[in-house]
Amino acid sequence: MIDWTRFEDLAAEVGPRRIGEIISIFWEEVDAAVAGLTEGPDPASTLHFITSCAANLGFQELARASQVAELDVQAGRPIDQATLMTCYRESRDAFLAEVGQHGSAPMLRSETVPKPHHS
User: Which of 58, 18, 41 is nearest to 33 (CA)?
Assistant: First the structure.
């Protein structure tokens, strides 16, 4: 579900303070994007945004699910918002449960990673 190598590489690149900020912003942005997906003017762009953010952080399953939804929108099919939100929550929960088990840098300890504001 999570590409820990990708996440660890990014964490090492940006440092402990920035990776915490990035994760916090990710939670906020994706919560809002998924929640308002069907109401926004351009769902394909929103889904592309989610796909890119998720892929950059190593959230592979979320990136795949969002990419499939983006292709559905482009083909004129409806968005399965519930499935996308479930995938996001499961990815987030897996990340929070496993973050302390990966990497040797202190930035990857679960207590240094901010928790999401929404569930």
Answer: 41
The closest alpha carbon to 65, from 42, 90, 41, belongs to 90
DSSP 8-state assignment for residue 110? G
Task: Compute CA 79 distance to the chain's CA centroid, rounded to the nearest angstrom.
Answer: 18
In a domain, 94, yes or no: yes
Tens-digit pLDDT profile for residues 1-45 = 899 999 989 988 998 788 888 988 998 999 888 888 878 788 999
**In this structure, is residue 118 part of a structural domain?**
no
Range of the domain at 83: 4-112
Cβ contact 40:46 at 8 Å? yes
User: Looking at the domain assignment, is residue 117 inside a domain?
Assistant: no
Cβ atoms of 47 and 39 closer than 8 Å: no
The pLDDT tens digits for 55-108 are: 999 999 999 999 999 999 999 999 888 899 899 999 999 998 888 776 634 454
The count of domains in the chain is 1
Which of these, 80, 56, 76, 58, lies nearest to 66 by C-alpha position?
Answer: 80
